Amino acid sequence: MADTALVLGGGAAVGGAWAAGVLAGLSEAGIDVARADVVIGTSAGAVLGSRLASGISAAELYERQLSGAEAINIAVTLGQTARFLWAALGSRNPQRSIERLGRAALAARTGPESDVFAAVGTLLGDVRDWPERELRITAVDARTGSLEVFDAGSGPTLLEAVAASCAVPVVWPPVTVAGRRWMDGGSRSTTNICLARGHRRIVALSLIPDAVGPHPSAPQEAAALAADGARITVLAPDRTARRAMGRNMVDDSRRSAAARAGHAQATALAESVAEVWHG
User: Fold this and answer.
1) What is the 3-state secondary structure (H, E, C) of 147-204?
2) Strands 38-41, 231-235: parallel, antiparallel or unpaired by DSSP?
């Protein structure tokens, strides 16, 4: 088995703030999961993972959440939410469910793809090049529903890969990269813990543990890896964090509270995480 993997799931701006707080809290406790042999990022986790793997510290990312830097204004209407749920929940078959969601994403009247690239570019800041450390970014082909994992050798730029991973179906248009249309990497699995298979010690931050539709949850994916011999812990927002985050995951006013809740949760769980990471 390879050694360590850090998995960062999707969860929009508010979930990303919570994850930044968790990473900072763990780092302060002497658990530097950002130094994992591989970082796997999905959607908001793709943004966070790209910055971590590029050398930006968890402490700095946390402070930026507290200060309200890099605010992104994304409005999600009730109609968009309803169309997303109608597509994702319209079949109990996982493949049919993701195909329905892809068709809905391709048919939706949204803004131009340039809006996605602009927003993701703001979130990445000065990070534009693939880092030397191993980074994997997930996206889903909107036409076939297949999961793709981008890395430094895949061809697309880092901005293209992260934009593909962040293209929330129905809210943002699928983005065109390498001649294919891509939507959010969390469409099939919100966390994609399965991609850490083969690593001995795994810490996963699952901002939204339960998938929307008939897809495996983060705990189910983690259990499968544990059955193969991996030591794994999955951190998800606790009750206090969920209250701080609220129901609207794109409500930028919640980021600071979500980050503080993540930091407090990590401090409380540091000992149990250390048993996995340093064991």
Assistant:
1) EEEECCCCCCCHHHHHHHHHCCCCCCCCEEECCEEEEECCCCCCCCHHHHCCEEEEEE
2) unpaired
Largest CA distance in the chain: 50
Q: Which residue do the tokens 């800041």 mark?
A: 125
CA distance 4 to 6: 7
The answer to whether residue 74 scores a pLDDT higher than 90 is no
Compute CA distances 130 → 19, 56, 97, 158, whole Å. 21, 13, 32, 6
CA pair distance 238, 228, nearest whole angstrom: 27
Residue type at 211?
A: A
Nearest to 47 by CA among 77, 76, 29, 23: 23
Tracing tokens 């979130």 back to the chain, one arrives at: 123
The reply to whether the predicted model has a pTM over 0.90 is: yes
Closest alpha carbon to 148 in 122, 178, 120? 178
- Could you give the CA distance from residue 162 to residue 164 in angstroms, rounded to a whole number? 5
How do residues 145-192 score in pLDDT, each as one tens digit?
999 999 999 999 999 999 999 999 999 999 999 999 999 999 999 999
Which structure tokens are listed for 64? 């930026």
